[in-house]
Model the fold of this input.
Amino acid sequence: MCRFLAYLGQPIFLADLVCAPAHSLVHQSMHADEGKTPTNGDGFGLGWYGERAEPGLYREIRPAWSDENLRSLCEQVRSRLFFAHVRASTGTATTRANCHPFGHGRHMFMHNGQVGDYHRIKRRMEALIPDPLYDHRLGTGDTEAIFLAALADGLDEEPIGAMARTLGRVQALMDGTGSTQALRFAAAHSDGETLTCYRWSSDARPPTLYWRAQDGGVLVVSEPVDARRADWRPIPPNHVLLARAGQPVEVRPFLVEAVRVAA
Done:
């Protein structure tokens, strides 16, 4: 399983969260405490919003702990909304195109989890992506496929509903193969203004996800980046967190129902 963090608040340097804390994301790339594996060395990525509507992205296949450019970039870039992700592949190739986060226009997305028996439904998952969006499919992983399918399902207008519909379609594809594996989904999405973070699974084992108030905003992480345990609140299973600048954080139920996909 991968590890990630998402921040929305007053502009800060990325290094303040990605590199500096005792259990920073860079540290978690070698020594994760709550992931399926302790090492997340199959690449990493950063995404941040600056003065343009579209996010900047930096993705690399080297492990986060061994890339000096990562630390230098994080020391120089200040942002009010950014994502960081360290990857542990669930079977797809270690390439830049498969590293998170993913961007399309003003949207940015990253994910930690699994699509059970992905190799059995990959082609049918890709069929959920219409041709104009499929032109933007550069990788081979499940995360990018979910992102592009959700865009087709209305992510731009109704993020939470669109993501529920997409996951419902993916679950139906899995059910159609007789798969007994789980669909597990911890993810973050932003359009440059709103941060939406999901914690959901088809079984009782969703990936971990925590949040706390931070610098007038919110920080969401796969696992706490420091020892201030009392400050961290788990997002309950099958819930979604919604944050906007200057507004209270909302945590609400997130329901997914299998949606039959036309043959």
